[in-house]
Write a structure and sequence with these properties.
0% of the residues lie in helices and 34% in strands. The protein is mainly β. The strands form 3 sheets. The chain has a 3-stranded antiparallel β-sheet with strand order 1-2-3, with no helix packed on it. GO terms for molecular function: zinc ion binding.
């Protein structure tokens, strides 16, 4: 970030006041969403937000999943439609992520 030794995953400058704002992912708080977490909200990432407050999440490409029955890994999953479906050749079954939802909790 300009004029700082700090780093951020996202830096934004306000067009009105010129203030720099930032969002950083706190790597110590990254978690995996697993089968036993199904249909429940679980904290999977924590952000350090300075001057901004996230209000929405738009998942894109780059997610990874592992099939429960066969441990087959699926890379570069596209969640732009809030769901993903594929076929696991090893277990001969359909796999997917359906009805993806999110929420932000302010601490």
């Amino acid at each position: 970030m300009k004029g700082s030794r700090g780093e951020a995953n996202l830096a934004l400058k306000c067009k009105l006041c010129g203030r720099e704002n930032s969002v950083s992912i706190l790597n110590d708080f990254l978690n995996v969403y697993q089968l036993e977490d199904s249909n429940e909200f679980k904290t999977i990432v924590v952000f350090d937000c300075r001057g901004v407050e996230p209000t929405d999440f738009s998942p894109r490409i780059g997610f990874t999943a592992e099939a429960v029955d066969s441990n087959t890994k699926f890379d570069n999953i596209n969640l732009e439609e809030n769901e993903w479906v594929d076929y696991d050749e090893e277990s001969k079954s359909s796999v997917g992520i359906y009805d993806l939802k999110h929420q932000f909790i302010k601490l």
